[in-house]
Amino acid sequence: MPENGRTATRRQVFARTAALSASIAFAGDLSELFAGTAAAQSLGHRGYGPLIPDPNGLLDLPKGFRYRVLSREGDQLRSGEGPVPSNHDGMAAFAARPGDRHGRVHLVRNHENRVTATIPVPTVEGLTYDPMGKGGCTSLTLDRHGEVLAERVAIAGTAVNCAGGPTPWGTWLTCEETEDQAGTNGYTKDHGFIFEVDPADPHRTGAVPLTAMGRFQHEAIAVDPKLGIVYETEDAFLKPFGLFYRFLPAKPHGGTGSLRAGGRLQAMRVPGVPDLSSVQEPGAAFDGIEWVDVPDPLATRTPVRLQDFGPKGITHAQKLEGCYWGGSCVYFVSSFARSADGSAADHFGQIWRYDPSARRLTLVIVFGPGTDVQLPGESPDNICLAPSGGLMVCEDGNGAQHVFGVTRRGEVYAMARGAQNIGTPQAPEWGEFAGVTFSPDGGTMYVNCYTPGTTFAVTGPWRG
After folding, report:
1. Mind telling me which residue stretches traverse the membrane in this protein (predicted)?
2. What span, in angstroms and rounded, lies between the C-alpha atoms of 66 and 82?
3. Between residues 98 and 335, the one the model is more confident about
4. Within 10 A of 210 (CB to CB), how many other CB atoms are there?
């Protein structure tokens, strides 16, 4: 039941604009979620104005903003290791390492390549897990002016690298969104793991699966910077749906490589709520959240979400995707739920907040319907906090593809769109956006187009 048997601290705000016809419902005080940097002063602003069609047919942005293409699939990696792989997905930006006087920024980018991928991640000695895997990560090094200095393979031989997340010690955890075992699809090793990637020196981390963190359809992670607990989402589209996990590391305050020491994997149980989609009201809060040890984290015989979690069962949710840490809480996204697929109810996107100190779970944001006029109900996928406050949300669906901004007042605005003059040679038919992230100084937004794989750097009059 919701706290006190009813919705707690509810505040609903519906934003409608002629351009987007979008709606989002919020609940409670989200100052922690939308805090951004200390300089953020524009939390309630309506955005940056209408999108201006790009004469080059690539990326539509508001007036005053501009983009540069940092990398495209099929071009040659500057390392000479092979072509830039396809299917650009999750990404993060990392500040220069101590002692680096050049102010370099490192980008780590996932490639969600399946066995059918046309441009795999090139295999590199010391960085390849399974030679038959076509996924992995590439790393870009940028100078202080944003120019690409280097581009190379960061890990190879993995599969379906979807999202992941940064660690407090400056590495990237890349997640395999698959459960294929050795002998399936030609793989020589089991897949479905998390791998650690050092953005500046990939050979430092190599290609070692963090097996204690579980083998399932991983999506994203977020790390509690004080306790070292790693939260993990599972993107399961069909029933039985995925679980929300936490990993209690044996070395909670370690650095690079510490997660290899193992730990305990647990799944979240919300008492009385077997399916999160059944909760529809923003502000619904649940106390006494339980964490149950996963019987077999390696899923040697049975997928984790199908394992026996005892007579009380476990809590599932369809399409658990983005995950990030804000303030003292972890936030995670359910991209959508459809009763036709077996969910308890329909929704167009949820953001949940878990407060570890209070053991409380709260539904704080409900998306849609209506983020696309022609195809209402497009769903949130990759999400990041903007340095000036608010959210940046990558849309995952059909039709026009956007990066949306969301203000604290619940106002939705378009920040970027795949150009609409489809059909000209320079204007590909864009897939979804993914991997939205900001430079350490907040002056540049980086974002990927999934297909054709393209990495953009967007600069302009960012507030704050």
Report:
1. none
2. 29
3. 335
4. 20
